[in-house]
Design a protein that fits this description.
Layout (H helix, E strand, L loop, with lengths): L18 H12 L5 H17 L8 E4 L6 H10 L4 E2 L4 E2 L2 E5 L7 H12 L9 H14 L4 E5 L14 H14 L3 E5 L4 H6 L1 H6 L3 E3 L8 H17 L11 H11 L3 H18 L6 H10 L19 H31 L3
Parallel strand pairs: 1-6, 1-7, 4-5, 5-6
Antiparallel strand pairs: 2-3
Helix pairs in contact: 1-11, 4-5, 5-6, 9-10, 10-11, 11-12
Bound molecules: adenosine-5'-triphosphate and magnesium ion (MG).
The site of adenosine-5'-triphosphate (ATP) has 17 residues, from α3 and α11.
Protein name: AAA+ ATPase domain-containing protein
InterPro entries: AAA+_ATPase, P-loop_NTPase, TniB
Organism: Paenibacillus odorifer
Amino acid sequence: MKAATFESLNGKGLKYNDYEYKKRLEHVKKIVVEHPQYQEVYEEIEEVHIISRESVQASHLYVYGLTGVGKTTIVKQYTDSFCRQLTETGTIITVLYVKVPPRLKTPKALASKILGEMGDLFANSGTDEEMGRRIIQYARECQLELIILDEFQHLIDRETHNVLATASDWLKLLTEELNIPVILCGLPESNAIFEYNEQLDGRYPRRILLEPFGFGDKVQQKQFRIFLKTLDEGLPFSEISNLSDPLLASKMHYVTEGVPRYVKDILIEATKLSLKRGIDQINEDSLHDAFHRITRSNQIHAINPFGDNQFDYFNAVATKQMKDEAFIKSQSQNAISKRKKRKIPS
Ligand SMILES: Nc1ncnc2c1ncn2[C@@H]1O[C@H](COP(=O)(O)OP(=O)(O)OP(=O)(O)O)[C@@H](O)[C@H]1O
Ligand SMILES: [Mg+2]
């Protein structure tokens, strides 16, 4: 039994348009686990923030990691811990969160996004320089202490893979003139921006890599199981689902590769199924069926481990890797023979 926040369904299945169904589903989506890596990143942001207050030189931080590891979740939680305050003279915004827009050919789109988030009614007007000056003026007026720029990889052109020079130069100038910490967040490919722009590189000596949960040794297994246990305690059911059971946890890691987004995705699908079936927990049946409802292009060779009492994690991972490698090899051989066929017409 769990702390009684959610009542037993008493075997009565819910429909997707029931209020209770929607409420419980939203609840799953909102669960955030403050795991050790989460705490480390959160505290680093807090430290950069605090030590930069009234300092002659602001510190900066770069947080990077694969898709779904939880970068946005952490920085959003940090932003949300500082409410905007309306005063008689204006709005106080202590922390500003901005998503760097895609296809950023010039600094203008980024500048206007920042201005828009600051509440500027004319966020699109002005030259790059004018917009930069307005950002600095508003930052002072709003008593801004920290900016978070998420999706930093959008400073790389998707088609050419070139770093967008004017935008990265503009950003470097902005961080200098604002003299408040600017936290950059993005996919690992954002590292190319630092390699390209030496001046920006020099301003970001502190970089943190956020990684998926591992399962290779006892310590990693324990951390992943604690993550699952905390999620389990937060699930909208009256009964515990035992997700942290060693065998079930190994199955969860196998299908999600320890990436919080994929863990959440399968739990959301399994929650829907359990609610519809009137079951007071997520069981292996719901996980088994949820697995089939989720498509991930990088998991085409994964078997469905749920319901298999003989599941062996390390064997299953090795088999999956072998199949993945054979698949990649056959794909590249196909590509070579197609190219050959085009050159030598029969
Ligand atoms: N600490 C956490 N606790 C619970 N769920 C989490 C946590 N971190 C991430 N998630 C889940 O994973 C999903 C993806 O997380 P998030 O959007 O933060 O990843 P990201 O690293 O920003 O990915 P991307 O690079 O694609 O933007 C979230 O919607 C959330 O459901
Ligand atoms: Mg993100």
